[in-house]
Amino acid sequence: MLITLSRTGGIIPITKKADAEVDWTHNQMEELLKAIKKEGEGPDEQRDATSYELQYKGETFPVNLEKVPDLYKKTFDNLKEDLKISKPGG
Amino acid sequence: MTDQLVESDDKNLSKIAINTKFRSFRFRSDREFFKETTRKEQNILCAVATKPVKVPALKMEVYNCKKQASTTGAALLWSDSSTKLPSDKDAKNVINGGSGTWKFYYELFGRNSVDNLGMAIQQYIHYDKKYDNAFWDGRRMIFGDGDGTIFGSFTTDIDVIGHELTHGVTQYEANLEYHMQSGALNESFSDIFGIMIKQRVLNQDVKQSNWLIGENVLLGDQYALRSMKAPGTAYKSHPDLGDDPQPATMDAFVKLPDTSSGDWGGVHYNSGIPNFAFYVAAFNMGGFSWEKAGRVWYGALTDKTLKKSATFSDLRKLTIKIAGTLFGAKSLEVKAITDGWNAAKVK
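ok -> structure tokens follow
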């Protein structure tokens, strides 16, 4: 399955994206999302900070990458490394 | 009378009387002494008697995140009690930037740190790998090293450091909501104070300054993050970023969704409009930006009537009002600020 990590925000607002094809089962994906999914931060908490979202099967989830379980860490490290500017700003 | 009481058989009365007699003698003696002193001697004696005043001092700590995307395991690299500066270049940059920012607010406006209560400025450097951003997280500053291709280290421009710390000041003052027009004002206050902090450190007047934010952070001699003098021109045909999207005037206001990917309604875009108003106002006043225009904008940021949801028009009215109070309703300063907002087409 295809997953997309995107990063938005920042002192100069840019959107960055990276894709990866993974062979995780549906249950593994559910387990992963349970661990890293977070409530979307409102603007007053974010300011110039950046935030990450994971897209999977047409749905988008705000995620906390600090909580990625060890099993999936390498994939997310690679995704972060591969992030490319998709479009400046919105 | 006192002499009679001293001779009294009542020991308590006698004791009170002798004490009274002694104090009277001392007061007479002191008066006689002071009568004979010169004005200079009196000033010295009064100064000695004054209680020492506690002068606020900068409190700062710098931590190294060691390229981890977390501040939890960061190591303390330097604090204001350290005797030596660290060898780390980014640490030196943030110490210099943090000090310049603290001095700016304290020496010009009497403000003691971000919260005006002497809060320690905590700065975290080397955050994450190739992290191309800097931000204020509500309590501390966090700086990335940049990707090395598009962005250099985010510690290299003092205006960026001043920008982020001013988000903290705004948080403790007007606390402008970070979306739509109030969010663009939040961003604009950060750019305005960021540029003034740079100008003051470099001793530049309004004509000498290039009015660029982040001219070293965005790599390439012809690029900067933002231009306050000419919003929309900080970068042109950048191979990765394209063109600077900032408008300078209200008729070009950018409408974006109120989401993270929509920059919360374009706060980093539309900040170009109040930025341009400030630039025109400060330029028309002449001299150093912080002396007049800066006083007015600081007055507005700390004015209790500036609402969290303030619009550009609200700030226009407030800055004109404050300038009228400071310099007179018919002053050149009021005219310069009115002309600034008119140039940005904010009514």
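The two ends of chain B are 81 Å apart (CA to CA).
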